[in-house]
């Protein structure tokens, strides 16, 4: 329903009634009329209520207005009466004498004098506040002392008995003025001492603030010096107690240094007076003695000083009332209670030195607590560099030595005396904490890896492998890792970037890791540790001089007066990181040794994998963690360079200078590598002992078989041979004999299982002493079993008798084991003196079981079979044959300078397993070398040649050299290997 327009019309909108009749009809006009009448009645009712409520107030207002009218009429009447009375007095005095006028004039002048003083007294507080707002405390002090002088002139002090003075009785307004003036002294003193705490305050402002204090307290210059130093000490405490927020620490330390330096500069400018005959204060480049010059200008009584430094000098041209002030006010000058004696040079030096010593204790304690919040060496270096920039600025360094020499009679090194040791201690603490964190995390990673390997070994042996990682499987069986393919085996730039050109920090190829049997677990551990050490090393570089710094600003570092050499503590900084890294690695080694101690008595199969992992880890940590070497050697890492000339000359020079040029850092690095090697050898020894015990136990069981069936089970096929013999009649007789051509099955099983186990752990990368010790242990234990066989009682029931055929087989087995597992004979020693005596005892016992005639016939044939067998099995048992049985030490320098190109080989072994090599070439080269070197037999072989024989990659060079020699027959033509070497 639409709204009625008549009802929506407002009364205030009705301007012309005629318009209503044009716009609305009669009914709507009646409704508008009723609406208007209703609103009129409503307003009347509201007016009645308002009048009823305000009626009492209106009556009171009317009464007040009436009283005001009566009061104003009475005041007007009183003024008219006073005017008439004064007019009558004036007419009565008109005839007074001239002496009366004179006395009235004098009284008027006294009145004007007192009025001008009162006016000045009323204006002084405002002027004092203005001076204090402008930090002109000396001006405020002078005005305050003038105000006190006015009080004494006007006798405004309270009289005895508590009565006011006459002036206060006549002018009561001065009572509050006197009370207000009393607070100025404490306010001026408080603000002046507050000004002394500021760093960015001019020397003149400091001098004026101290003069204000001396005038108000009547103190001496020595007391002013004490106040100044106490204020600066309080400012130092305030800076040290501010809240710490990261970058604000740098600002706080810089503010402390700036405050300390500024204090000494201002002490020189304010308190120092040159000796007699020297430049006077204000002369020369450095101003000094401002306190005494300012004090002299303020308190001097000479006419010139009075004219230049009067308190009311600015008021002479303002207002006519100023002319009525007495001369004691207009020429007022403050005065000290005692004579201001200059501070003696010795007293100034002792006071400043005592203040420096006190501040040194506070700064060392406070800055030490501030540096606790700095968590990185980069932050420390930023603070140190900021301090260096501050002290190297021209405003500080230009006259620093001069000021220190005149004030303290000695140079003052702010960094060396106050901050350097604090920064070094904090750096050592940060380094220790970070290296301890690296050590803790590495030990945790080591423990986790060991537990994973033990669990992986258990799952592998039980046939279950629930979701274990492939890296753990590779750790249990290294051979599967060596012969597996992965995308990262060769780097993309392997074809044109040789290994010599590839730095230690650059990425290594997967194939290079496999040639050294570095499993993924070892790589992960070392890469994790190396990354953490690199972070530490990068952080440390911020605190050490960079190459640009050394080359550009090194000679002038610390040459300015107050600046310092930022890098004097570089050796101590490097020593802190070196000590932390050594402690970190030794902590890891102690954890490894504890793990090895737990596994050493009788290691289980699960423990052997972890033992080998720790052995490989200790063996490769120095190589896979290049940043560890950088951390320990420090700058010497970059200064070490290869000697110029040929490699052989470099080696000779290196050996000649080795004893004289070994630095402590290099000695520590060598000692750490020795510790790592010893721990690795200890772990390998545990593995070799456990392996030899398991294999030789099976060997002994088969060897001591007592039944004929067990013995036949291990027997092998013999070879039928025809031999020509001469009968007694001189005719030739052909006979057939049977001789062993291969060892017993348990001997073959022993050697094959030994080779399999060595190959399983990456035998080509095993240390040569470990492999030799393993072979020697196996041979020794095998001899022990053979020797125990000789001690059996043949008459014992159930023991199979030692027949000639069995003795021949056992003799062949023993000699084959000795040939395969025995070590090379040393030069100048016979085979009998080099071998274990038990071998001869056992061989003699076995030969005693063979017919002597048959033994003479069989021996050459057995030797031939033994040599043939050794050549045939050299491929299969290559890892057990030993490098000294395959290659001779060559003195030829052909290709001796050629390093490996694509693949770095391990330095422990010079061959991979299952790699065929020619024995005839070796024998020929040996015989040739012996024939040529016969006259020089006592001389030891060249160390360089020996080193070249066992350098990584020497295998390929030797194979290539052997192919270039006279036509010695080889089992295989390794042209692809020789081509790679060339």
Q: What is this entry, summarized?
A:
By secondary structure, the protein is mainly alpha-helical.
Structure report:
The protein has 982 residues and is mostly helical. The protein contains 42 helices and two strands. Strands 1-2 form a two-stranded antiparallel ribbon. A hairpin with a 5-residue loop joins strand 1 (718-726) and strand 2. Helix 15 runs parallel beside helix 19. It is elongated, with a radius of gyration of 56 Å. The termini are far apart.
Relevant terms:
mainly alpha; two-stranded antiparallel ribbon; disordered C terminus; elongated; 982 residues
The total count of helices amounts to: 42
Helix content: 55-70%
Kindly state the number of beta strands.
2
Question: CA-to-CA gap between the ends?
Answer: 112 Å
The low-pLDDT segments are: 551-562, 638-656, 825-833, 886-902, 910-982
The main sheet orders its strands as 1-2
Please outline the major beta sheet.
2 strands, antiparallel
Quaternary organization? single chain
Task: Walk me through the topology.
Blueprint: H1 5-8, H2 17-23, H3 26-93, H4 98-133, H5 137-154, H6 166-170, H7 173-181, H8 184-196, H9 203-217, H10 221-240, H11 248-271, H12 290-299, H13 303-308, H14 327-330, H15 345-371, H16 377-392, H17 394-397, H18 400-408, H19 414-462, H20 470-476, H21 478-482, H22 510-515, H23 520-541, H24 547-552, H25 570-599, H26 605-624, H27 626-633, H28 635-639, H29 647-661, H30 664-703, H31 708-713, E1 718-726, E2 732-740, H32 745-760, H33 768-790, H34 804-821, H35 831-834, H36 837-848, H37 852-872, H38 878-881, H39 919-932, H40 943-949, H41 954-964, H42 975-981
Antiparallel strand pairs: 1-2
Helix pairs in contact: 4-5, 4-7, 5-8, 5-9, 8-9, 9-10, 9-12, 10-11, 10-15, 11-15, 11-16, 11-18, 15-19, 16-19, 19-20, 19-23, 19-25, 19-26, 23-25, 23-26, 23-27, 25-26, 25-27, 25-30, 26-30, 30-32, 30-33, 33-34, 33-36, 34-36, 34-37, 41-42
